[in-house]
Predict the structure.
Amino acid sequence: MPAPVSEHIIVVIRFSYVARSGFRVNKLSEREVRAQLYADQRLARRFAMFEALTLPSLRAQTDQDFTTVVVIGDDFPAGWRARLESLLHKLGDGRVVALPPQGNYGATKAALTSCLHDRATHVVSMRLDDDDALGRNCIAETRRIVPLLHQISGPGNPAVIAFNKGLFLEMGPERNQLYGVVEKLPLGIGMSMVAPRDARPTIFSLDHRQVHTRFNCYTDGVNTRFIRTVHRDNDSAGFASGRRIDFSDAELDKILTKSFPFARPELLALRP
């Protein structure tokens, strides 16, 4: 009889973490990167997005059996850190992990290891940025798919789940635009990897646009599962890799009511 399988879903958010790889400013010195990431005006904008979008989307998940771990630098400004820890108390299982500068993989792996349940045979590592939102069924859908991946790939082999259909919220100085996208390549928002707890790979082992070249990958291009924000603080270029869908206001209202805890007017009123 096969050994019982128990998965622990862990959402990992890097919040202005001073990493030695991965961020667009890494051509600067570590001191310059820190000064840019920790600037009060920038942090105020990041917190505004986190509080308006990311946190409400996590609190609205229909399946609340998951952990959220937010990775910050060990020298993250004290006042901002206290605010972040206070916000995470609003989640069922939210925690901050403060680490010294290192590569993104090492930092996220350490964060995952620090909060993995003893009873878990597998970890489901999920990516989320601090300015994006998950559809309210993302955790539930991930949990539904994971056993199917075990059947296809085998429980000993890492496999990836990606959600390719969602909404882009393009934030401009004068007005915002909200439209649909279906990405042609795997997108990182809500993307997760299921792997044995002692396996080396996590969802941060490879660029999210390349995961399908090394791992079996299930992509959902039918259901609307995320909202990605496009604004001046984006680390990567804010454009869809696939098809744009210009929904009517009525269609957007229907999508938001079904999948997100937001109304169209409040999204269009958010400022970058």
User: Anything to note?
Assistant: The first strand starts at residue 7 and ends at 14.
